Amino acid sequence: MTWEAYLGILGILASIAFGYLAFSRNKRADDSTEGRQLGQIMSDLGYVKSNTDEIKAEQQRQRDTNMAFAERLAKAEARLEEHISASNKRSSARIEKGGV
To answer: Hey, which of 33, 40, 43, 89 has its CA 20 to 30 A from 15?
Structure first.
């Protein structure tokens, strides 16, 4: 073999070595980037979950308030119906007696 052949083989081996080193370096960089992105996603997911829990708690408090209001309204309507009924009875009794 001539020195050109040895030089060609050396060039091929150097290309393979440099290619492997570049691939290895890029893989580490990709793994680092992927890990950083995964960490960011997990952080964002935790933030969304905590906000969802807060919204659920607020919704429950609002539901309790609405139920209390509905109960108060129902009691007030019942008292109003009783008042109207009693008033109608008194008016009917006065009309029957001949007074206005």
So the answer is: 33
